[in-house]
Batch of 3 targets.
Target 1
Amino acid sequence: MEHNYSLQPFNTFGIEVKAKYFATFSNTRELETCLKAQPNEPLLILGGGSNLLFTQDFDGLVLRNQITGISIVKENDQNIYVKVGAGEIWHEFVLHCIEKNWAGLENLSLIPGSVGASPMQNIGAYGVEIKDVFHELSAYHIESGAIHTFSKEQCQFGYRESIFKRALKNQYIIIDVTFALAKNPKLQTSYGAIQNELDIKGIQNPTIRDISNAVIAIRQSKLPDPAILGNAGSFFKNPVVDSATFSSIQQKFPDVAHYVVSANEIKLAAGWLIERAGLKGYRQGNCGVHQKQALVLVNYGGSLGQQILDLSTHIIHTILDQFGIMLEREVNIIPSYENIV
Ligand code: FAD
Ligand code: EPU
C-alpha cells in the first residue's frame, strides 16, 4: 500500500493531489485485504478518474479497480451475454465487441474510463445509454463483504443516474458487468451528426464498425483529449424542464437548443445555454470553458480543483440569472460528504 501518493496520473483533469493511502486490486480477495488494512479510513473507488474533480488531497484510502476479464456467459439466437471485469477499459471493450461483431455498444465508442464505472451514471452518447444493453452486475457490499447481483430494474437507471449514485451511494463496489449484446445489429443512426458523418463518407449500408468510426470522428472534432487538455467531459447535465418552463424560455430565446423527452419533459442543451451566456472560451486563471464545447471545463495546466469548482459555481449563477435554470454538476466532486464512505 502506498502512502501520500500522487493522484495526478489517475484523474483526467490532471489535478495534482495526494491520497493518504493508495492501492490497486485485481480481485475481491485483494480488495478485502486492502479494506481490512485501513478499516476506518474514508474510501474512494477509482476507475479511470474521468468523471471526477479532486478539490483537495484525499484524506483516506483510494483503491483503483483493476479487475479484468471478458467471458461469454450464455447465448441464444438473438443475444450474446458477455461478462466484463470492472477494471477493463471501456473503449477497449467496445472495440473488442466490434471485432467480434457483437452489436449494441458502437455508439458508446471512445468514452473514457472503466467498465465498472459505466453503470454508475448509466453512460450515454449518440442516442444510446448502457441501460439499453445492460443485463446485470455483481457488486461487493462494503459493510457485509457479500457479493450481490443487480438486475437492470434494480439499478434504477435514468439520464446519468443509477441507484449507486442515490439510495445505495458508497455502499457497493462494482466487480463485473454483464451486457446482452445483439447478434443482429439494430443500428442507431437517428442522432443527426452520425448520419451526416456516414453521408460524408458515402456509406449507405453501415456496419457497427462504420458507426463506431463515425462516433469517434464526431467526438474527436469537439471533445478535448484528456491526454492533451485536462477535462472530465460534460461538467453539467443537460437540464430537463417541463413544457410550461420550456415555453417561457422559448418565447425569449426562439432558437434555444432542445430535445423532446416526453409529453411534459424537454431537455435543454446546457452547452447552448453556456455559449449563449457568453461563457464559451471564458477563462479564469489556468482553467476555463472549452472553446469548441461549452459544456466541457478544461485545465490549461496547473489549475487547482477548487478553481475549477469555483468556475463551475460562476457558470451555475450566470445561467440561473440569465435563464432561470439551475444547472446540476455531472462530474463527481471529491471529497464531498456524499462521495466519502
Ligand atoms: P471514475 O471517474 O474513476 O469514477 C466515477 C465515479 O464512479 C466515482 O464516484 C467513483 O468512486 C465511482 N466508481 C468508479 N468505479 C467504480 C466501481 N467499480 N464501483 C463503484 N464505484 C465506482 N460520460 C458519458 O456518459 N458520456 C459521454 O459521452 C462521455 N464523454 C466523455 C468524454 C471525455 C473526454 C471525458 C474525459 C469524460 C466523458 N464522460 C462521458 C465521463 C466519463 O468518461 C464516464 O462517466 C465514465 O464512465 C467514468 O469512468 P471512470 O472509470 O473514469 O470513473
Ligand atoms: N451546443 C452549443 N454550444 C456548445 C455546445 C453545444 O450551442 O458549445 C448545443 C448545440 O446546439 C448542439 C447541442 O448543444 O447541437 C448538443 O451538443 P452535443 O451534441 O455536443 O451534445 P451535449 O448535449 O453537449 C451530450 C452528453 C455527452 C455526449 C453527447 C453526445 C450530457 C451532459 N452530455 O452532450 O456526454 O457525448 O451528448 O451524445 O448529456 C459526458 O457525459 O461527459 C458527455 C460528453
Note: Residues 2-65 form a domain with the Uridine Diphospho-n-acetylenolpyruvylglucosamine Reductase; domain 2 fold (CATH 3.30.43.10).
Target 2
Amino acid sequence: MQRYHLTIAGGGATYTPGIVNSILNASDVLPLRKLVLLDTDAERVATMGGFIRLLLKEKAPTVELLVTTDRRQAFTGMDFLFAQIRSGGLPMRALDEQIPLRHGVVGQETCGPGGFAFALRSIPDMLAIGEDVRRYAPNAWILNYSNPAAILADAWHKRFPELKSLFICDMPIVIELLVAATLGQRHGELAFEYVGLNHFGWWRHIWDPQGQDLLPQLRAHLLSDKPLTLFEDEHVNADWIPTFERLRKSMGLFPEFLSNTYLQYYLFGEEMVGHEDPHYTRANRVMDTREKEVFAECRRCIAAGSVADSFLSAGVHGDFIVDHARAILTNRPFRTTVNVPNRGLVAGLPEDAIVEVHGQVTAHGVEAFGVGPLPHFQRALMVQQNAYEQLTVEAALEGSYAKALQALTLNRTVPSADVAKALLDDLLEANRDYWPPLR
Ligand code: G6P
Ligand code: MN
C-alpha cells in the first residue's frame, strides 16, 4: 500500500496533536511514510516534535518524523501539506485585537482591522510557501486552515492557479454540528445550503432526509430561548458560548437566514466592542490557557516518556481536515464548505471573489455548488466585504498605502476614513517587522 509524506506548516501550533491524532485514526486511507513538522519557531516546534515523536512511537512506529524550519527539506517528496500558519504568532494577534479596540473599533483576529493586519503579515508568508511548493512538490495537495482564509485564498489562487489546494474553515462545520444537535438530528443526515465569504455567510436551508426545511424549526427554537445543545469541542468554552448565544439575536433581526457567528462583528460592532477589555483580549486568554496547557502537557509527556494517558486527542478540527484528504484519496465524495473563486457560483459578485459555499470534494478536487441570485442585503454586504478583501491583497502585493486605506475604509467595522487612517498608521507602526513596506 502506498504511504504518504505529509507536512504540517505551523507544526508548532497547539492544534498539531489533534490533527496528528486524526491522521493516525485515518491510517486505513492515509497511512504515513513521513511526517514533517515545519515551523519558523525552532524552539516551539522542537517541544511539539518531542510529543509527536512519542505519539508516533506508540501508535505508528514506522513513520519517519522530521522537525525542521527548512521548507526545502519539508517539501521535497511531499504528498500533502496541511497549512496552519499564524504569522507573527499570538503576541501579534494580541496587538491585532487591542489596537482597534483603542480606537473604539472591533478587535478581532480575522474580522475588521485586526484581520487586515493579520492578512498583511500572512500574505507574504503564504506566497513564499506556495513558491516552494511549486519548486519542490508541485503535485502535492495543500489543505489550508491559515487565516484570514478568504484573503489568503485570493492571493494564492491568483498566484498559483495550477496548484491543488483547498482553503477550509471549521466554523461552518462547528455551527452545523451545533444546529444538528440542537434539533436532535444527525449531522450526516441533514443537507445544508450555505452561502457567503469566509467568516461572513448564511445558511438558507437545512433539509432533513424527507426534504423538509428545518430552518423554521431552528428559528422557533432560537427565538423561544430554548437551550442550545453544545458538544465536546474546543469551541465550547466560556469565551465562545456568548458567540453561539448571539445567534438568537441575529436570527431575531434577520429571520430568513441563520447567520455565521462571525457576522456579529459586522452587525453588532458596538456591542462587541463594549464586551471587550482592550488590555486583555482573546489572544491573551489563548496564551494563558490553551497555549500554556498544551505545551505543559507536551513537556509532561516528554518527561514521562509516554503519551499513553494524554488528553491531547483527535477532535472536530483535526477530523475535518483529514476528511478532505480522505475524499481526495478514496474519490468518495465528501460534502463540505470550501472557499473557492466565484466563477458564477454566486450571482452579482465578481468572478474572482473567493466565496464560501458547499461543495463536494473528490480525487478531482472540489465541485462547488452555485446558489443563484441573493437578496439585496446579503449580496451588498458580500460585495462590500469582497472589495475590502481584494483591496487588502492588492495593498500587500503592490505595497500601496492608498489601497490599504481604501480597504480599511470599506470595512464595515470601521466608521470613517479618519478612523481608518488613524488605525492604519498605528497598525503600520506595530507591524514594521512584518508587513511589506507601504508607499
Ligand atoms: C474558529 C475559526 C478559526 C479561528 C478560531 C479561533 O475555529 O474558524 O478560523 O482561528 O476559531 O479560535 P480561538 O480559540 O483561537 O479564539
Ligand atoms: Mn475559520
Note: Residues 19 and 318 are 4 Å apart (CA to CA).
Target 3
Amino acid sequence: MIKLFAANWKMHKTRAEARQTAAELAKLAAATLPQGREVLIIPPFTAIDAAVDGIAGAKNFHVGAQDFYPATHGAFTGEVSPAMLLDAGAAYALTGHSERRHVLGESDAFVGQKTAFGLAAGLKVILCVGEKIEERQAGQLQAVLTRQIRAGLADVPADTAPDAISLAYEPVWAIGTGLVAGPAEIVEAHALVRGLLAEKFGAAAGEIRILYGGSVKPDNAAEIIALDNVDGVLVGGASLKADDFSRIVLA
Ligand code: PEP
C-alpha cells in the first residue's frame, strides 16, 4: 500500500506563503521520496491553487482541501462545493476533522453526508475519527470509533474504490497538544478501524489507508509509520515548515 503523508495547514498561510512552503517541500523531498510514499498538502481554500503552483512537476505530490459543503451549488453562503475544489486543483478533501466536529459542531450524520457526497463528486476523501480524552478514560474507544465510522460511511457505496477513501485515526487529546498516542494505543485503534472498514467493504478493507494523526513530529514519525495498520500520517503543527515536514516525509 502506498503510504500517505498529509499536511493539514489548518487556518495558516497566505497564498504567497503556501506557494513558497509547497515549493520548498517539493525541492527538499520530491527527488528523494522513497518508493511507496506520496505527499498531500492541505492548505486553506484560498491557497489551494497557490499550493498547486508550488508543487508543479513534483512527482507523487498532491493538494487537498480541509472541508466542503455537500451540494453542487446554491444558497449556502460561505460554503464551497467539491466541484469548486476539483476546479481549483484539489484532488482530496478531509471530512470530520475533530476541529470541525468539536469546534464547529458537525454531527456524525453530517460528516457522513459529506463523505458520501465528496466521493460521488470525484474527490478522494479522508474521513477523520477519534475519541476525546474523557471518552477514552470511560472505556469508550471502541464505541466512539464504531459510531463515527458507521455514520461516516453510512451512504458510501460498498464498492467504492479503496484508493478513493482513507480513514484518519486522530485521538482528539493528541491533536496539537504534544501528546502522542503510544504505539500500543495506535495499533489497538487502527486494528479496530480496520475491522470496522471490513464490516463495510469486506476484503477491500485491507487496501484502504488508515492514517494516524496527533502530534506527529520529525522525531517520532519513523516509529509511528512502521506500526501495524498505519498507512500514513496526518500532520498539523509539524507540517507548517517545509524543513520539519520533509523530515517526516523522508523518515
Ligand atoms: C491535525 O490537525 O490533524 C493534527 C494531527 O494536528 P497536530 O499534528 O498539530 O497534532
Note: Residues 3-249 form a domain with the TIM Barrel fold (CATH 3.20.20.70).
